[in-house]
Design a protein that fits this description.
Elements (H helix, E strand, L loop, with lengths): L1 E3 L4 H18 L4 E7 L4 E7 L4 H19 L5 E4 L8 H12 L10 E3 H5 L10 H13 L2 H17 L4 H21 L6 H11 L5 H15 L11 H13 L6 H7 L4 H12 L3 H19 L4 H8 L4 H12 L3 H8 L1
Parallel strand pairs: 4-5
Antiparallel strand pairs: 1-3, 1-4, 2-3
Helix pairs in contact: 5-6, 5-7, 6-9, 7-8, 7-9, 8-9, 13-14, 13-16
Length: about 325
């Protein structure tokens, strides 16, 4: 049996191991050993000398796995296979790997098996284009509440009937590309590296929890990581959108005011009055949020990150980051990775 933790392995394999240990030792009708494997980012339990394999499988599926989902913050994805001796171990691991990739088609708490997958009749995925249109509008309006609600509606449709997991993953990557296109058409800049990261992660996602996390990350990316203040004027909305699109190029208050056909003094006063932050403070916050995302979701070096967010000197960027966050970028990456 494999308990697959994926991206949560480093932080959550120890709690999962502690949870499973008493169950593994409790068996009177089998012997078992448990090991962790960084290669598979999973915990593997090997049962042997089993009197009734089907009974053991049922016990884990009906009792142990539901308890794991109730107890653990990030419960593993469980898969099961039978090997006839050590010679079949390699093939057994391949079966366990294949089984976990189908998790999107089955409810939480399910123990994935090759037999179960083989008996599944999938149907093409065709969620309502109206839902996609509504999600696009939520992104355009920066309506987080609507975005979350529509996201759950699309997920509910995807789990209503069994669809091939590859088709599910492909549909979500297409959705992200469509949303990026809409955002770009509104004049909002999107970071290609971050978008490629999200699309790449979606193409490998094997749980709805992971898809939800990626879509939340995507929303933060595409909206600049900053929530729009309520009741701001159209002029300030345009200013904030242009700041998000061009802060990495070092846009100045004078340049922004010129594009909006107002004086820089008037624009500065209006931004401060309606958002509570000055032009400089707003740009600084946008840069800090982008730096955080790049530190956590890319392997870029500090000089590369500095260039991407509009700082010519990575040392100065680190100084500003420490003033805002309380630690240097390298420490932030280490503590939050």
């Amino acid at each position: 049996m494999m308990a697959y933790l994926s991206d949560y392995y480093d932080n959550y394999y120890e709690p999962a191991e502690r949870f499973l240990e008493p169950y593994v030792k409790a068996g009177s009708e089998y012997k078992a050993c448990m090991l962790t494997t960084v290669r598979y980012r999973a915990i593997v339990v090997i049962f042997y000398q089993m009197k009734d394999p089907e009974k053991i499988r049922n016990w884990y599926e009906k009792q142990v796995i539901p308890a794991a989902y109730r107890t653990l913050e990030h419960a593993p994805i469980f898969s099961w296979t039978i090997c006839q001796g050590l010679a079949e171990f390699s093939a057994g691991f391949e079966k366990l790997e294949h089984a976990r990739m189908w998790k999107l088609c089955f409810p939480e708490g399910n123990l994935m098996t090759e037999e179960q997958i083989g008996a599944t009749q999938t149907v093409p995925i065709k969620y309502s284009l109206d839902l996609e249109s509504q999600l696009k509008q939520a992104v355009v309006k920066r309506d987080k509440e609507a975005y979350d609600r529509i996201l759950e509606q699309i997920i509910a449709y995807c789990v209503e009937e069994p669809h091939h997991p590859d088709e599910i993953r492909e549909s979500w990557t297409r959705l992200v590309v469509a949303l990026v296109t809409v955002s770009d058409s509104m004049g909002r800049g999107t970071d290609n590296i971050s978008m490629q990261h999200i699309v790449g992660e979606l193409s490998q996602a094997i749980s709805w929890q992971r898809i939800r996390e990626l879509m939340q990350h995507f929303y933060e990316e595409i909206t600049g990581g900053l929530e729009r203040p309520e009741n701001v004027s159209l002029l300030v909305k345009k200013a904030l959108s242009m700041m998000e699109a061009y802060y990495s190029q070092g846009i100045t208050l004078e340049e922004l005011a010129g594009r909006l056909c107002v004086t820089d003094e008037y624009l500065s006063m209006l931004i401060k009055k309606e958002t509570g932050m000055s032009f400089t403070e707003t740009v600084r916050k946008m840069r800090i949020e982008r730096i955080k995302e790049l530190l956590l979701h890319s392997g870029l070096k500090l000089n590369q990150i500095a260039e991407m967010v509009g700082y010519s000197d990575p040392k100065y960027m680190s100084k500003v980051f420490k003033e805002e966050v309380g630690m240097l970028p390298a420490q932030f990456r280490k503590e939050n990775h």
